């Protein structure tokens, strides 16, 4: 790349896009990278304030910003994504499916620490819809050393920084505990809420079983859904530390591995997550506290998209939710476009 006087630029090839701004009329590239300057272009360039312009000077050790942008995009783009055209060293990626955005945050940080290139994205573990923007990538200078892009490739070691996991058509069993509901003294309020949340992610409700406070009855109800082929069982009620709340015991008695009883999230501190192993599959069994029944958003809204996408949740994952784990219960709920649950 070299700088020359605009009046001497006829026949030269522009090495970058040149934006023209006419207030109220346009703000876009008037001349694109690769354009061969003509006599007629000179007055236009001068009217844009370009007394001097940069033209391409071949250097085998450098990439133009758009060439480098293609490499950076290739490190990010994965299945279920579509990309924009490259423009001024920038490419954006969008989702093509309903699913869960996953990010290798350590790798993202290392790429961004390289300098001369950047990737800005949504938060990881965010539910996305078709057409939702996932990230934007950009090369900062007009040209960049090839060795810098090669270093970015080496950092990735063939891995992609981003992935979108589509939601799966899971079969879900509902078990509602509590003698007051079992005997018809109180109307069940959990069922409609859980049904709506599961179906939002494409799940199928196998059915709902109401049990009394005896843990053996709840355990049997859970196992019956698993025998019916349930991919997940949601157990609601009886999740506090009161002596007569036996749901955690009932879940443990299935033989499931309890990942965590408790999560640093409000609402939802008494949430329980476990996995039951069957035929090589890990079937989530959750214990849902009462807040899921009446609060707009709880820990269940943070975990459910991951379960519906078959994305394993660990205790370490749940522990991270404390940062941003306080729902502000806004009058108008904007979740997931807010800070709630962005800690992981």
Automatic annotation (TrEMBL):
Entry's EC annotation: 2.10.1.1
User: What pathway does the annotation place this protein in?
Assistant: Cofactor biosynthesis; molybdopterin biosynthesis
Q: Which residues form the MoaB/Mog domain?
A: 173-309
UniProt key word Transferase: yes
Q: Catalyses which reaction? A: adenylyl-molybdopterin + molybdate = Mo-molybdopterin + AMP + H(+)
UniProt GO BP: Mo-molybdopterin cofactor biosynthetic process
**What cofactor does this one take?**
Mg(2+)
Which keywords annotate this record? Magnesium, Metal-binding, Molybdenum, Molybdenum cofactor biosynthesis, Transferase
Matches recorded under SMART domains:
MoCF_biosynth
Instruction: Specify the superkingdom.
Output: Bacteria
UniProt-listed InterPro entries: MoaB/Mog-like_dom_sf (IPR036425), MoaB/Mog_dom (IPR001453), MoeA-like (IPR038987)
Q: Which SUPFAM superfamilies has this protein been placed in?
A: Molybdenum cofactor biosynthesis proteins
A GO cellular component annotated for this chain's UniProt record is: cytosol
One Pfam annotation reads MoCF_biosynth
Q: Does the keyword Metal-binding apply?
A: yes
Sample GO molecular function, one term: molybdopterin molybdotransferase activity
Gene3D superfamilies to which the protein is assigned, alphabetical: MoaB/Mog-like domain
Give coiled-coil spans as residue ranges.
none
Family assignment from sequence similarity: Belongs to the MoeA family.
Q: What does this protein do?
A: Catalyzes the insertion of molybdate into adenylated molybdopterin with the concomitant release of AMP.
Q: What is this protein called?
A: Molybdopterin molybdenumtransferase
The species this protein was found in: Lacrimispora saccharolytica (strain ATCC 35040 / DSM 2544 / NRCC 2533 / WM1) (Clostridium saccharolyticum)
**Source species taxonomy:** Bacteria, Bacillati, Bacillota, Clostridia, Lachnospirales
């Amino acid at each position: 790349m070299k700088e020359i006087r605009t009046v001497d630029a006829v026949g030269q090839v522009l090495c970058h896009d040149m934006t023209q701004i006419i207030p109220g009329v346009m703000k876009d590239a008037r001349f694109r990278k690769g354009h061969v300057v003509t006599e007629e272009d000179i007055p236009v360039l001068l009217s844009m304030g370009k007394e001097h312009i940069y033209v391409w000077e071949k250097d085998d050790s450098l990439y133009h910003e758009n060439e480098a942008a293609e490499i950076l995009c290739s490190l990010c783009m994965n299945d279920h994504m579509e990309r924009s055209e490259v423009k001024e060293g920038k490419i954006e990626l969008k989702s093509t499916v309903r699913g869960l955005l996953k990010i290798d945050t350590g790798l993202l940080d290392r790429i961004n620490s390289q300098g001369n290139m950047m990737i800005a994205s949504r938060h990881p573990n965010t539910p996305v819809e078709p057409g939702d923007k996932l990230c934007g990538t950009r090369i900062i200078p007009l040209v960049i050393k090839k060795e810098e892009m090669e270093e970015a490739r080496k950092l990735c070691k063939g891995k992609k920084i981003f992935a979108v996991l589509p939601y799966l058509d899971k079969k879900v069993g509902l078990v509602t505990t509590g003698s007051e509901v079992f005997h018809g003294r109180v109307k069940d309020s959990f069922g409609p809420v859980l049904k709506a949340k599961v179906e939002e992610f494409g799940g199928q409700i196998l059915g709902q079983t109401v049990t009394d406070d005896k843990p053996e009855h709840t355990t049997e109800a859970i196992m019956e859904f698993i025998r019916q082929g349930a991919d997940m069982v949601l157990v609601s009620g009886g999740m506090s530390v009161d002596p007569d709340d036996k749901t955690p015991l009932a879940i443990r008695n299935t033989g499931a591995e309890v990942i965590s009883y408790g999560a640093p999230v409000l609402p939802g501190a008494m949430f329980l997550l476990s996995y039951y192993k069957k035929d090589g599959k890990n079937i989530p069994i959750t214990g849902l506290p009462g807040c899921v029944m009446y609060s707009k958003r709880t820990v269940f809204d943070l975990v459910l998209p991951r379960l519906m996408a078959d994305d394993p949740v660990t205790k370490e994952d749940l522990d991270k939710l404390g940062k941003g784990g306080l729902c502000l219960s806004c009058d108008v709920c904007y979740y997931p476009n807010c800070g709630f649950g962005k800690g992981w």
